[in-house]
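Weekly modeling sync, notes
Attendees: S.R. (lead), two postdocs, one rotation student

Agenda item 3: backlog of single-chain predictions. S.R. asked that every request posted to the team notebook include the full sequence so nobody has to chase files. The rotation student volunteered to paste the first one in as an example of the format we agreed on. Action items at the bottom.

Example entry:
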Amino acid sequence: MNSPFQNIGIVTRPNTPEIRDTVHTLVDFLQRERFAIFIDETSAEEHRVRPADIAQCHAVGKAELGKHCDLVVVLGGDGTFLSVAREVAPYSRPVIGINQGHLGFLTQISRENMVEGLRPVLEGNYLPEERILLEISLVRNGKICQRSLAFNDAVLSRGGAGQMIEFEVFIDQKFVYTQRSDGLIVSTPTGSTAYALAAGGPILQPGLQAFALVPICPQSMTNRPVVIPASSEIEIVVTKSGDARVHFDGQSFIDIQNLDHIFIHRYHHPLRILHPTDYQYYKTLRQKLHWGEQLL
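Predicted structure, as returned to the notebook:
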């Protein structure tokens, strides 16, 4: 195969031993087409890959795939895709998803049509798309104590005690509001169809350079979602934390203390996603959100 890619990475959905047949089909196809194959070592350790297939691959850590691969193939659902996006984005490597999950907003090729869907992409026939990420810094007592990336959203939320939290929001160092609520979602356009949508936020077309700030059950009903340019810097000052946390893509978190400052801005590297040439964003919305079909 004449391809713009040479080294292909594979990441599989966690806790899915039955995915081994899908991995075997993919490894067999890539090997026959003479690609170098890199497999996420956790996939191998958790027996999601047959031993014979592991022997045909280079096993590396997920964080190392961006160094070695020209393209990363994600076998899983949107959650698996999110975990890969944060690792690969710093290296500007493209990612494509094979849907093994339920919703599949990010994983566009079906498992049943995996080889047929991947072949034209590997031959260079695809629709590329760049999507922004968030970079979040937690400052405590004047010092940065953690930096994290998020592809969907960063969520400040109350903890197990169930008490509302209080915080102030600044955009580009200008005071916006004080809020008492269950929390605040700061969402990218990609994340606008996830938790932010469930909390009443707007759907943002993926190519927009914008963030949405979506309150979670605010005490004041006048606190509404706000959309701002992605060039903005958001600062959240927590004045009453309870046992609040900040979650990153719903996959990791850090505990928050009173007077913590949370700074959020656009990460300097976008994630490059490859889609099949028949991909249509609004068609995906209709299918996943069960919107009505065209009448005429």
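Discussion: group reviewed the output briefly. The chain has a mean pLDDT of 94.
Action items: rotation student to repeat for the remaining queue; S.R. to check formatting next week.
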